Each structure stands twice: as C-alpha cells, then as structure tokens.
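QA checklist item 7 of 12: single-chain prediction sanity check.
[x] sequence parsed
[x] length recorded as 201
[x] structure emitted
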Amino acid sequence: MTNNRNPLTPAQIIKSVSPLGSGKYDLISMIRDSDRAEKISSRENYILILPFERTEDSKIKAIYGVKFENPATGQPDVSLLTDVIDFEKDTTSFDSVGRSLLEEAGLNIEDAGLNEDDIFYIGTMTTSEPAIAKFKCYAIDLTKISRPNESIRFTRNLSKSAFTKDDSSEIVKIGFHEIVNGDYSDASILAGSFLLVSYFQ
C-alpha cells in the first residue's frame, strides 16, 4: 500500500484516554507513526495554600510548609499545603481555603481572627511533565497572629492523608531567605513563592 502523505506535513497524533485506578487520573496514550508516548493527567481541582508572614515594612519574611516523610520515596520532603476543592462543602474560595487550613493544618482562621481580607488568590500553577495537573494558588497572611516568641499552633491530626497525618508530618516555618538561597527544591514551594513575590511587588 502506498503512503501518499506529504513528508513535509507532520503525521496526525492518535490519542486515547483511559481512566486509572479510582478515576482521579487518566492515562493519555499517544501514537504517531512508530513513536509512542504516555502521560498521566489528573482530573482533580487542586489548590495550593501558602501561609506567610511579612516584616514591618511589608516584605515577605517567612512561609509555612508541610514537612513529611514521603511514603513513595522513603525520603523527607517539604511542600506547600495541597488539597482539592470539595464542591459539596465549598461554596466560595474562602470556604476552600478555610476548610483546607482546618483539615490540613488544624488552623481555624475565623477563630484566629483572620478573614477574607487576609487571603489572596496569587495565580495558577500547572505541571506538564512528567504528569499533567493544575493548581489554584492562595496565600494567607498570618502576620497579625504571629508573635515574636511564640509559634503558631498547627496540627495534622485531621489530615485526609493516612500516610502523612499525626506525628508523621508537621507544619514548619521557612525563612524566605532560605528559599532565595535554594535550600528548598520542591516545585510547589518555588512556584508558590515566586507567585507570592510577584503578587506583592
């Protein structure tokens, strides 16, 4: 059989999508001529939450992340708080951020004296390699509840992850200079910190 396709015209990519596991992810298979590739794509509506503090002259002083023993790698990791929007519970973005902070950090923002004016939508983060995912990023300013000689109390006992709750993880304060110095390599911390600085420039 003769192939009459113009060699200057790229071959069409044949794509198929198959659900994985519980249906939260898809396996995207792509074929073009003899080339084959696969990608994993998430169906989840992720949010990243970046608690932070400012100095007296409003510069970013510190952020907070989750330190945990990564069960997939067996290595310690630090990342931002990550959750998914619960459309049955969350009516607004404020609801999503408040619920996530309560469940994942044990912080009730209303009891702490924080409100919608302390929460900022700072942008979107996406990943395309090796997996496809999208995150809406929110920052929450904890400056007014921070005390010089007293740590903000966080807990992880309500976390939805059975692998990183209770004593297996903790919320840690990270000096912003440490991120600038390259002491943290997690993509969520780096991207979230960049969005935070860009928002308040």
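[x] summary fact logged: The chain has two domains: 12-43, 46-199.
[ ] second reviewer sign-off
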